[in-house]
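$ ./design --mode recover --in tokens.txt
reading tokens...
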């Protein structure tokens, strides 16, 4: 085993770790994507093969039949990798960075085999034996890598078994309340909430137009649905019939620290898009009946333990600044005679995106816990219930003004993280201290991770909206596949919040 060979093996380990953490766990979240069970099985088996190879090469000198067995193991790993490439192309669109990393991994593995196979072939000519060896730091490097791929392999195999339970519920019933066929324009239709809304509306037979900056992304996400895609509102003719507009577009708020430039993008993107929507309504010959415009419960500011409804006042903070400007921009639609709803959403729950998606991996590895002291409130809502609430706001002519998009029973962060641990059958005992979050993320951590609002859906309750997931444990069990999903045709029951709304 030469120094050059060890360098290529170490490079393979590091690139493999990057691919796993950045792509599989980070951007792609394969363990929580429906339909990826075969790819997860291949990853699991390949990782266990890597575990054996790393442990063997780092600490032993296999001879005779054991050397031949290791050659066969490496050949099998190569076959699995080729099979994995076919499966990936069949089931998902790989980002450019993942394709580059896979190419480099393949080339580097070829170099490793070209140098390693002659060594193993020489060992194969000796009498069968497993001789202990020690290559210094590389032996320990192999031990760490073997442990890592062993844990990752077991996790991938377990995730493959769970995968069939992650199939989303039929989206069509989510839009059942809308009634006869409607023409709906959705901005932000490729986003976390917007894509599910578009799927629901299209599946229910409504005419859906989606505004997006990235047509290719929209086709990948929405291609199976009969929707019309535009990259500019100017492409919509003045005589186009539009019954309702749902405005959800804006710079993501939770994908990085709130630098000065990031704050400007967050505010300006929402203001600009809402202004474009208002200008579209001004030139349409037949204006839409309703505009449902995005907002958030951050408009109430940081309010401690106070129970808040749509009539509550707010306290200054950046989140409130964003939401006030967003709602003020949308208010111009009221002057055009368009019924306007300001949808103040809380923490939207689903495995495919949002804050929960980022929490799943660490919690599944047993590394989860409360943020800070865990006493701050988290006002949450299941994504499917939020889609149903948007449809409810479109369908009900008596709904206007602010509507809180939250479930009826908000919980503290301590209760939320404990419930997530239960859903994943993992302990949630490793708290994340407040000071590193504040140091790394600044205001983002203060307002979104370490503080919150105790918000109640008073307007939704007053207008007869019924939640399918009013209970956090049931919502998390459905999202994580810990329990069967509540059927979309199951009866809904009225609820009473702590204030009796």
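writing sequence...
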């Amino acid at each position: 085993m030469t120094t050059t060979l060890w360098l290529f093996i170490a490079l393979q380990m590091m690139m493999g770790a990057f691919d796993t953490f950045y792509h599989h766990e980070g951007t792609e979240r394969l363990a929580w994507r429906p339909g990826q069970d075969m790819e997860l099985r291949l990853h699991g088996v390949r990782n266990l093969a890597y575990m054996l190879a790393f442990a063997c090469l780092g600490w032993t000198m296999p001879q005779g039949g054991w050397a031949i067995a290791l050659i066969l193991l490496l050949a099998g790993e190569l076959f699995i990798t080729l099979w994995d490439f076919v499966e990936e192309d069949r089931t998902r669109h790989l980002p450019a960075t993942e394709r580059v990393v896979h190419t480099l991994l393949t080339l580097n593995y070829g170099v490793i085999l070209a140098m390693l196979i002659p060594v193993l072939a020489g060992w194969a000519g000796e009498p069968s034996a497993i001789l202990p060896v020690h290559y210094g730091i590389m032996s320990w490097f192999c031990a760490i890598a073997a442990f890592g791929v062993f844990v990752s392999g077991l996790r991938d195999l377990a995730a493959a078994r769970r995968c069939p339970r992650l199939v989303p519920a039929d989206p069509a019933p989510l839009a059942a309340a809308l009634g006869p066929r409607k023409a709906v324009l959705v901005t932000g239709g490729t986003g976390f909430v917007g894509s599910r809304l578009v799927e629901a509306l299209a599946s229910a037979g409504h005419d859906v137009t989606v505004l997006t900056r990235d047509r290719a992304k929209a086709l990948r996400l929405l291609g199976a649905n009969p929707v019309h895609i535009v990259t500019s509102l100017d492409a919509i003719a003045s005589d186009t019939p539009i019954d309702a507009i749902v405005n959800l577009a804006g710079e993501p708020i939770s994908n990085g620290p709130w630098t000065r430039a990031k704050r400007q993008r967050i505010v300006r993107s929402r203001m600009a898009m809402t202004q474009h929507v208002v200008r579209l309504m001004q030139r349409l010959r037949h204006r839409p009946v309703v505009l449902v415009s995005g907002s958030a419960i951050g408009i109430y500011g940081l309010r401690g333990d106070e129970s808040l409804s749509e009539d509550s006042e707010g306290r200054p903070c950046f989140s409130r600044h964003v939401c006030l400007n967003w709602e003020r921009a949308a208010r111009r639609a009221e002057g055009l005679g368009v019924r306007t709803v300001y949808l103040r959403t809380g923490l939207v729950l689903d495995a495919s995106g949002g804050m929960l998606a980022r929490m799943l991996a660490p919690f599944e590895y047993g590394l989860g816990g409360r943020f800070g002291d865990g006493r701050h409130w988290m006002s949450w809502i299941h994504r499917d219930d939020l889609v149903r609430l948007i449809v409810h706001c479109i369908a009900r002519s008596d709904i206007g003004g602010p509507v809180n998009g939250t479930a009826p029973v908000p919980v503290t962060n301590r209760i939320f993280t404990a419930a997530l641990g239960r859903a994943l059958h993992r302990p949630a005992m490793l708290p994340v201290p407040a000071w590193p979050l504040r140091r790394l993320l600044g205001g983002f951590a203060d307002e979104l991770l370490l503080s919150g609002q105790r918000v109640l859906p008073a307007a939704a309750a007053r207008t007869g909206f019924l939640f399918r997931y009013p209970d956090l444990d049931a919502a998390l069990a459905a999202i994580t596949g810990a329990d069967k999903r509540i059927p979309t045709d199951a009866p809904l029951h009225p609820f009473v919040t702590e204030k009796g709304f």
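exit 0
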